[in-house]
Amino acid sequence: MNKVSLFVSLILGVLVYGGADSSALAQEKFVLVVNAKNSVTQVDSGIAKDIYFGRKLFWESGVKIRPALLDQKNPVTSSFLSGCLDTETSRYLAFWRRRLFSGRGVPPKQFQSEKELLEFVSQNEGAIAVVSTPPSGQAASQLKVIPLSN
Q1: Which CATH architecture has domain 28-149?
Q2: 28 FRET partner, CA 20 to 30 A, in 11, 22, 84, 86?
């Protein structure tokens, strides 16, 4: 095998195998949580998109939906935006800037820590949030993990 074909093989190997590994590493897990008083039992990806893009404003019970996310730089938020909402963080932020500027909506509330986020959800019946793992301890009694279906 000459040097050129060896070089091409190495490049192809990095592109094929390196790309697959890096995308798998980039996939962070996330969990949706709601207030324990919320009657919702599951959310499909279409409903999640409608909630986080401001198109669905009320739960079936009539309670106002209060979506929340971790800070835009958090890997859990990035994973949720790309994996569930099929968008990039920059596009999502641009979408909400346009909506906010035109007076057509308010973006999901953002938090710096999961502790603050879970406290918000536990205090607001209509809240829904994205976190890295299911809550435990005292917070778990005031929250409910809901499955995300396709």
Answers
A1: 3-Layer(aba) Sandwich (3.40)
A2: 11
